[in-house]
Model the fold of this input.
Amino acid sequence: MHPELQHELDIFERRTPKSAEAHKKNLKRIPLGVASNYRAYDPYPIFVEEAQGSRFRDLDGNEYIDHNLCFGALMAGHCHPAVMKAVEKRLHTGTMFGMPHNMEWELAEEICSRFRVESVRFGSSGTEATMHAVRLARAATGRDKIIKFEGGYHGLHDSALVSVKPHAPDFGDVHDPAQVPGGLGVPKAAVANVQVATFNDLATVELRFKQNPGEIAAIILEPIMMNVGLCMPQPGFLKGLRELCTKHRTLLIFDEVKTGAKLGWGGASEYFGVTPDMICLAKSIGGGFPLAAFGTHRSVMDLISQHKVFHGGTYNTNPVSMAAGLATFREVLTRDNYAHVDKLSKKLVDGYKKIVAKSGLQAYVASAGANGALMLYPKEILNYRDWITVDTDLWRHYWFGMVNRGVMCQPYWWDEQWTISVQHTEADIDKHLAAFDEVAPGLAKAQQERGAAVVAVH
Ligand SMILES: Cc1ncc(COP(=O)(O)O)c(C=O)c1O
Done:
C-alpha cells in the first residue's frame, strides 16, 4: 500500500469510529457485517444516520455530498418532497393489499408511453425483473440458452450469476470467453445455458449463435455496461445486436435497471435509437422505494395472460411503492429535471477533465446521463478485460480521499459510477470539484511512482 493511501485510511478511521464500532456489532450476527456483499469493504463501511436531498450524515455526524445514492437507485435524491408527500398519504390508506388497485394501470400507462413496450408487470427488485424477462424469453422462443456479456451484472438469480467477475485463470480467450459461475451454488445446468460473449465484440456473439444454432432465447445486456465503471457501447454495437437477434429470432433484452431512469426521458432505446424486445426497470423508478418492472410486446406478455408462464409476488404493486413510482415518473423524472441534471453533469465532467489535465493524472472521465466515473486508465475501456487492469489501491486512494473531504463521489468499488440526483445543486458540484482538486495532485504523483510496480503485478 502506498503511503498516501495509508494516510487517507488513517484519516478515515479517525473520522468514523462509530461506524467501526457499529460494524463490529453487525459482524456478530450478519455475514461480513452487511446486508449485501456489495456493501462490505475494508477497513469497514460507513454507517448512515440520516439523509436528505443530496446529502447524508454518518453515525459520527460527518456530512457527505452523496453520489452513491444507494448504488444509483436515487436519481430522486433522498426524501424527494413529491415522493414523500405521495407516500405519506398512502401510509394511512393501506400499505399492502395483494389485490388490484387503480395505481397499477396509471403506472403501466406511464411506462408504456415513455418506453417502447406495450405491456408491463411489476416487481420489487432488478433481480426479479431480469429473472422474469429471461424466463419469458425462454418461453416465447422455446429455447433454453441465453447470451450475456462477460462482466455484465443482472442481479442474483442463477441465469445472471455467470461470468460476472470471472478471474483471469478461469475466463479463457477474450474471443471465446469461458462460462464461469459467479460463486458456489449456481447449478452447472444453469451455467451451461448461459453463453458468454465479449462486450463491444459482435464476432463473439456471432460465434455463440453459430455454436448454438436455433438455441438462443435471448441476449441480455446493459446498453451501457455499468458493472465496470462506465463502459459505452461502441458505434454499431447495439444495432448489430438488434440485427443478430432479429435474424435468429432471439429476443433482445435491455437491462435498464440503471439506465432506464437515469440516461434520459426514454431510457437507452431513445438515447441510442435501438429498440429492444424487452426492458427491465428498477432502482431509480421507485424514487427510494422498492419497485421494478419488466415490459415487452403484448404477444410475449400473452404467455402470462394465458397462464403459460407464471409470474407472481406478494409485494408486487404494493401501494406505497406504486405511489412513490407514480410521483417519481410525474414529478421527478421530468424533462426539466433531466435538463437540470445534464447541466450539472456537464459542469462536473468538464471540471474533472480540467483537473485531470492539470494534475497529469493518467485517466479519463466517462459519463452518460446522470452517471459518470473517473476511469483510471490511459485509454477508453471497451470490455471487462480492459477494466480489470485498474490499479485498485490508486482507486481506493481517490475514494477515501474524496470521502475524507465530505464527498462520496460514487459507491465504494471501482466497478461503480457516480449518480447526480435531481436534488443536487451547482454548489454541490463546486464542492465535489474542490475536493477532487485537492486529491488529484497526490493521486497523480502516486500513479507515477506506482506505475512500474503495478504493471509488474498485472
Ligand atoms: C444492471 C443491473 N441489473 C440488475 C440489478 C439487480 O437489481 P437489484 O439489486 O434491485 O436486485 C442491478 C443492481 O445493481 C443492476 O445494476
